[in-house]
Structures are given as C-alpha cells and as structure tokens.
Amino acid sequence: MTLAFFDPQRHSQLVVDASPTGLGAVLAQKQDCGEWAPIAFASRTLTPTEQRYSQIEREAIAIHWGCRHFHLYLYGNSFSVVTDHKPLLPLFKGSSSKPPPRIEKWILQLQEYHFTLTYQPGTKNPADFLSRHAHPATSKEIEEAQDTEEYVRLVVERARPPPIPLSEVVTATKLDECLQLAIAATRTGEWRPLQRPDSFRTQQAQACLHALFNVRQELSVSEEGCLLRGLRLVMPASLTNRVVSLAHGAHQWIVKSKARLRNKIWFPGLDKLVEDTIQKCIVCQASGSPDHPAPIITEQGPTAPWQKVSANFGHLPDGSHMVIVVDDYSRYPEVEVVQSTSAQTVIPKFEKLMATHGFFGEIHTDNGPPFNSHEWEEFLASTNTKHRCITPRWPQANGEVESLVITRPKRTDQLFDKATSVVRAGGRCGTGVLLSTDGPFQNGDSGSPAQMQTLACG
Ligand SMILES: [Zn+2]
Fold first, then answer.
1. How close is the Cα of 279 to the center of ligand 1, in Å?
2. Cα separation of 255 and 262, whole Å?
3. Which residues form the Integrase catalytic domain (predicted)?
C-alpha cells in the first residue's frame, strides 16, 4: 500500500480502533479516482488503568487520541471519523446523551474539531491491526490518562454522600454481588451470559442486574472500583437505606427527597425505597398535607426576587429565637438569631435585610407579636411596605407561592428542628437551613434559590 501526500483541499477520514491493550488510527484522504489513500498510521499502547476501561471507553479514547494525534492535519477542516463501535454514535450526537465521565471529558475536548462520526463494522477496520501491535505510549499520553482519572476521582468525590467515607462505598461495592457482576460486564462489554437466571445467587441480584443492564451505556468504573451511572455514583444495596435516610434528614416529601438523591447517586429501586421510607416516617405522615384540600384561589406570584417575602419565628432551646424571612420568588431563606421577639429587636433585622436586598413590597406574616404592634406598623409605613396577614396554620389560604414556603407552619416546625440541630452543632443557622431544607432542589429544574435570584437580576 502506498502512502499519499496530504492535501488540505481533500476530504480526510480518520479510522480508529481500540483493542484491549492498544489504540490504532489511520488517516486517509479521498483521491480523484474515488479511492481512499492512507496518509499516515499511528498507534499507542493503553496504560494499565486504561486497559481496565470499559469497551465503549476504549473506543471513545481511540477517537479522542486519534484526533489529537493528527491535530496538525485535522484542525480547522471538516472530516469524518470511522468507528466500529455503534453504541458510541448516540453519545457523540447530541446533548441529550448521558455519557460516562471519561467520555464526557473527551467529547468536550473534541469540540474544537469539526467531524462527523460514522460506523463501519469491525471486520473491515484497517486500524484494528495497529491497535493490536501498538507502539508504547509517550509520557505525555500517560500524563493525559492520569488527568482523566483525576477528573473521575473528582466526580466520585462530588457524588459521594458526605457522611459516608469513600472507603466504605468501595468496600460495600466489592461485597455487592450485583455490582461486581455489572462492573465485570461493563469492563468486558459482555452482558449476555449474565442474563441467564442461573448466574445469580439471589433473585434480588437478578432484578438489580436487569436494571443496570438497561442503562449499560451510561455505566463506567472508577479507578477505586466504584460503579458510576453518568456522573452519579451507583450505591451498593447495603448502603441504600442509609443514603435515603440521610437525604430525608429534613423530612422533605417524596419529590424533594428523590430530587436530592437523583442529583448525585443512583441505584435500582431508588424511587420505591424513597416512597416506602416516607410512608413509614411518622414525622412526615403527621405533617403531610390533608388528603383533599379545599380548592384555593391563587393570587399573582411575585415577578422578581424580594418583592414579596414571608416572615415567621422559630424558637431555640437556649431561649433565643430565629427570625426567618423567605423570598417568595426564589424561596431563599434569611435567618437571624435574636434574643427577644420584641419589635425593637426584630425591626433592625428587617432593616438590615432591606439594606441587603432592597425594600420589600409586601410582607406576609401570621400577625402574631410583634407583627401586630404599633412600632411594626410605623416601620412598614416608613418603608412603604404592604402587610398581609395570613391565617395562622392555614398557609394555603395565602395562595400557592406561600403554601410552598416558610409560612407552612407544620413544615416550618421541621425546618426549625433541623436549624436547631445545626445551631447546636455550632453551624451557621441560615446556612444550615438552606443546605438541609431548601437545598438546591426546591425549585426542581429552575435552579437553586441563589441561582433564581442571580438569574432574575442578571
Ligand atoms: Zn420524614
């Protein structure tokens, strides 16, 4: 086979392949006769860590490495990349794909190239031979592989529930029959033998593996041996109850508890376990909303942060109190600790909040002291603030926005419990409430309370 000269005017094609031990790439260009002529060949061995990658990861790194290796030829031109691994196509196609962290990193780095990925069955792949007889990797390539592992470590660290040490997750994963089978299948790409019922000791492991099989394209294995689904950590069965009770620490209801978990971790049967836990939780059941609340007439919600706020008090075991003010728009809570609930003590706190966030157009309270005092009325008049009183312990009367926030008294009680424990532990009250209760998931997809404010302002 003769090599052709590179011509920037011609269409280039990069054919890549990965074997269990190496990567191969062939750069070719279409000639006038319509034939593809090779321009250059390249190969490199995989590092021991890379050899433990899943098959899809090895095929993806072949694309990443091939493009980088032939950067001088490919950068700035559109070209096509040929792979013999079909499952890669959807991952490279659109933003709706959920690739494992390593592939995600490579896809991001490949954004500077303009290429289309196409599939060709492996039998015709000229890069296959190269990948099986590869040149040793250079020190730069080894360094890059280490960078990728750093990133995966970061993803695992971020996904791990803070109270559970990584070593515990690793050990529990090692002892989990289902996860071990899934890790082995992810590395080899061979799931078929595992679908035979006799490959399991328990029925539970079989059901678990079936769920993992359905998301197999999103799975990858970290260097320590943790299983990841996309950027989320797959929890071994022995830790799932603990993780759910941690996420349910502030007695959030089903949707919020699930959202808290889904953001960072996953395991087969997550939804059902959360539902069961909450059904069994006495505090949640006692404070749940009535089965058939009367229909309510909702009022117009605020259109910007800090236009309308709701205020309430919480009481701490040492006799001090918390003034809790929540922005109805972003649901961002501010908490101030005061020694008394007198108007003289409380009003300066409101002044401080107004100095920070601007004048509130409207404050909602239950009209208990000091919100029924003369000083409070004067303060409202001086700041041109409207005061709306809601029915105590019936927040629904105040419209939908309010029913979701701090004025929901039963929910507030739980919030106070949590805040109290944070204060006892020496933490900052406001931060504790924010982290444990209203967290970044209060608004579902619309972002955290802080993001809601910045987005609205910026
Ligand atoms: Zn609960």
1. 8
2. 10
3. 298-407
Q: Distance of CA 39 to CAs 5, 14, 116, 429, Å?
A: 6, 10, 19, 65
Residues 312-323, mean pLDDT to the nearest whole number = 81
Pick the closest to residue 216 from 268, 257, 286 (CA basis): 268
Residue 448: what pLDDT? 66
The span from the CA of 25 to the CA of 12, in Å, is 13
User: Rounded to the nearest whole angstrom, what is the distance from the C-alpha of residue 414 to the centroid of ligand 1?
Assistant: 9
pLDDT at 92 over 90: no
Rounded to the nearest angstrom, the distance between the alpha carbon of 82 and the centre of ligand 1 is 53
Distance 236 CA to ligand 1 centre (A): 23
For 100-114, the pLDDT digits (tens) are 999 999 999 999 999
C-alpha to C-alpha distance for 6 and 413, rounded to whole angstroms: 73
Which contiguous run of DSSP H or E holds residue 114? strand 114-119
In 3D space, the residue among 63, 219, 29, 79 whose CA is nearest the CA of residue 131 turns out to be 63
Joined tokens for residue 263 = 């953001």
Reduced to 3 states (helix: H, G, I; strand: E, B; else coil), residue 390 is coil
Q: Express each pLDDT in 235-286 by its tens digit.
A: 999 999 999 988 887 787 788 888 888 889 999 988 889 888 888 888 888 8
The helix (H) or strand (E) run that includes residue 13 is strand 12-18
More confidently predicted of 129 and 418? 129
Alpha-helical runs (H) found in 139-269: 139-159, 166-175, 177-188, 203-214, 237-247, 254-262
Q: What pLDDT score does 418 carry? A: 59
Answer for the pair 385, 359: CB distance below 8 angstroms, yes or no: yes
d(CA 61, CA 50): 9
Where helices occur in 363-408 by DSSP H, the ranges are 374-382, 400-404
Rounded CA separation 175/177 (Å): 6
Instruction: Tell me the pLDDT tens digit for each residue of 171-226.
Output: 999 999 889 989 999 888 888 777 666 666 677 777 888 889 888 888 999 999 99
Taking the centre of ligand 1 as the mean of its atom positions, its distance from the CA of residue 293, in whole angstroms, is 21
Q: How far is the CA of 245 from the centre of ligand 1 (A)?
A: 9
